[in-house]
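Aim 2 progress update. The chain analyzed this quarter is reproduced below.
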Amino acid sequence: MGKSSNSFIFFGNNGEIQKNQVKDQEIFVLCLQLLQNCLVYINTLKIQNIIKEQGWLERMTSEDLHALTPLIYNHITPYGQFEKDLDKRRPL
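Predicted structure tokens:
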């Protein structure tokens, strides 16, 4: 893969914080952490659903289970493309 999930999330300005103010840097880092937490949460739910619904748990070895990580991002568009239906609640 080569890139970390933080590098993927923080794709602007070559991953450099452009502010010199400590308070601005702190806010930026906290926002980055929040985005990473959201990524982990959604990916964990998706992985759990796939394993449960498609019967993968019975087929997986202990090495497979150790290799699972919610820090995947290949399915995410960094510039955003959101299709939403405000009349429906997203199943989690």
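Helices lie at 5-9, 22-53, 56-59, 62-67. The radius of gyration is 17 Å. These observations will guide the mutagenesis experiments scheduled for the next reporting period.
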